Amino acid sequence: xxxxxxxxxxxxxxSLERRLHxxxxxxxxxxxxxxxxxxxxxxxxxxxxxxxxxSAIIESMRESLLAEGAAGSGASRLVTGNxxxxxxxxxxxxxxxxxxxxxxFANGYMANTGVISALVGRGDVVFNDQFNHASIVDGIILxxxxxxxxxxxxxxxLRALLHKHRDKRRKLIVTDAVFSMDGDQARLHELVALKxxxxxxxxxxxxxxxxxxxxxxxxxxxxxGIEHEVDIHMGTFSKAFGLYGAYVSGxxxxxxWLLNKTRPLIYSTALPxxxxxxxxxxxxxxxxxxxxxxxxxxxxRYFRSSLVKAGFKVSEGDSAIVPLIIxxxxxxxxxxxxxxxxxxxxxxxxxxxxPDGTARxxxxxxxxxxxxxxxxxxxxxxxVGLRLGVLGSCNQS
Length: 397
Ligand code: PMP
What we know:
The structure is a single chain. This protein is an alpha/beta fold. Helices cover about 45% and strands about 15% of the residues. The protein has 15 helices and 14 strands. A seven-stranded mixed sheet has the order 4-10-9-8-7-5-6, sandwiched between helices. A four-stranded mixed sheet has the order 1-2-3-12. A three-stranded antiparallel sheet has the order 11-14-13. Helix 13 (about 290-310) runs parallel beside helix 15. The model has no long low-confidence stretch (mean pLDDT about 95). Bound molecules: 4'-deoxy-4'-aminopyridoxal-5'-phosphate. 4'-deoxy-4'-aminopyridoxal-5'-phosphate binds near residues 108, 180, 207 and 236.
């Protein structure tokens, strides 16, 4: 096993080794985290709506656990793991999504890998935006379909690939709605037009847009009014819902197919019912507590404009993900460490998660942050930027 040590040394030298930290939530300060015992402003979490510590969700999970008297589900859903709570949640999800049916998965990674490999196989083709999440890429690899990777949001490139593969048996276009490392949006109207022109299926991953966009948090497809043009909607409960798990929604036909063909659903144990009950409570809150979305979108605009005013280059938009592109891995890592010493947790994202030369700090915002916390954060980010030479001068009003 010596090879491992050599490979790990290489990773360490390239500032690419990954390490674990122990993080704990802080009940009195939901915008903060205790990281290895230190209190840090949490600009690294995907708990966008601040629901992970919501007392109603925690209480519903506690009650469900005690009422059921079982910690685990004991088997996959198709064996004896399918509690009544699953059906109730799936009905509520279908109503929320205005779709015929929905299906709950253990997590987003399993939903993406399982669904893609259930939809396509040898002789088929998947058109994949180069910035799509790793779980989508892994689903394509598992499926054995041909992988047609198009340049990020480049519709002309996608069109050329669709044309090249026009005679393939099944064609699937798949995209993140909001890209996880850049926070920008897919060109969904154009994707719908192309899928219609080339008779392809369209799958949209709303992991970073579900709960945030749409009048009731349904996601970006609903905001754009194209929900009925998308064949396969997928979203997670691990981000804006503050919990764990995922769903797919669409036609009855799709859900019936997935129930029969999705291997992570068939061959893996069902989520415990207490989690499913907690998700149902989170879904109610996502639909009704509109102020959480409004506050998050306001924070996102404020944080971006403050960084831009200070002299940083930050992309426009209102998503909760705000990347600060640094470039080289070592500077990104030093930036993240310096922020930590300033009391901020903001991870350095490096290759292979992002392309070479685009290492970045990925800030993610939450309803749990106050505007004062964000203002303080921007001034500390500025001083780190100046110290590391990422910023020439800092304009702050
Ligand atoms: N899709 C996207 C776009 C994601 O960002 C993630 C998680 N980072 C997933 C899927 C996987 O979801 P989960 O964490 O629930 O496995």
